[in-house]
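Weekly structure sync, notes
Attendees: PL, DS, HV (note-taker this week)

Item 1: Carbohydrate ABC transporter permease
DS walked through the input record. Source organism listed as Streptomyces triticirhizae. Sequence as pasted into the shared doc:
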Amino acid sequence: MHALLLVAALYSVLPLVWLLTSATKNVGDFSTTGAFELADWNLLGNLRDLFAEEDGVFLHWVRNSLLYAGLGAVLGALICSACGYAIAKLDFPGRRALFAVTLAGVLVPTTALALPLYLLASELRVVDTFWAVFIPLLTNPFGVYLARAYAEAAVPDEVLEASRMDGAGELRTFLTIALPMMRPGVVTVLLFQFVGIWNNFFLPLVMLTDPKLFPMTLGLFQWSSRVSQFPQYNPLVITGSLLAVVPLVIAFVVLQRQWRSGLATGSVK
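Item 1 (cont.): predicted structure, written out as tokens:
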């Protein structure tokens, strides 16, 4: 078992090690050194060239990715949590049918929705704008399903009934009572949202043509398609890919404490 876990860990870590070593190389070092071999330290030069290329367009990509993923993850997690809580704890006509539709939405691949979303964005005249990518990312059927399952288990009906008897409305009950109880589940949804939006590629590819609106994934892809003709883009793409991994690592490290608290609470109960 330990050997299998070690192999799985190496499989996960080695690409990051390759990114770290490759980001320190210049164009000539890629043909004279091995994959995991260090050459002359050129990381600072690669970073300087990366942020200077095409009048600093990479800074626009970083800003766009942070806006898409940061705001989208927070708002999306709140929307999914509210929907999941409503399906789990509120009694209204069509609740079961709505949950069935949500489950069906989990089975639909996101690429199948790209063309309908583009047609809707075209009708609304928001193609090639920030909103064409940002608004569709706020909804996530899997996030609703996950929030519903967590609300069902973590929020007792007696607590909600006591809150209503004290005169709290449904919105106040959700924000002040249910949402703190659902915190580990909300953090999980937020992390799924952040990772999914940060790595999103196909929707921006369909919606955007202005390079200054690209996220990092699409911008680096555009540069990587030029490597065969212009080798000087190779260290820029690798260094940019290394920087693109950093926010994901930070998000996992910062938010894992919430998962631990949720597991501890469940074990005490």
